[in-house]
Design brief:
Largest sheet: none
Helix content: 40-55%
Shape: extended
Order of helices and strands: HHHH
């Protein structure tokens, strides 16, 4: 996956590692962005359970859900 991101997409992928000497809950940098996005996706009823048999259908449902989330956020009226 890292090789694909580097070659095809020209992206630099960094994996945030947890220190071995830490114990308990520790907030990792930028981890909240990933968790927030998963939270947005889990509001979609179809994604809350694994209904899909094929991976391409599952990928389409994730893209559809994010499209709905982002279009609602863009359409929100600013005050």
């Amino acid at each position: 996956m890292v090789g694909f991101a580097a070659k095809a997409l020209r992206l630099a992928l960094t994996v945030g590692k947890r220190d071995a000497d830490l114990s308990g809950f520790v907030v990792l940098p930028r981890r909240w962005v990933v968790e927030r996005t998963f939270g947005w996706l889990m509001r979609s009823r179809r994604l809350a359970r694994d209904y899909e048999r094929r991976t391409d259908t599952s990928k389409a449902m994730v893209l559809w859900s994010m499209t709905i989330v982002m279009s609602r956020r863009l359409a929100k009226q600013r005050r």
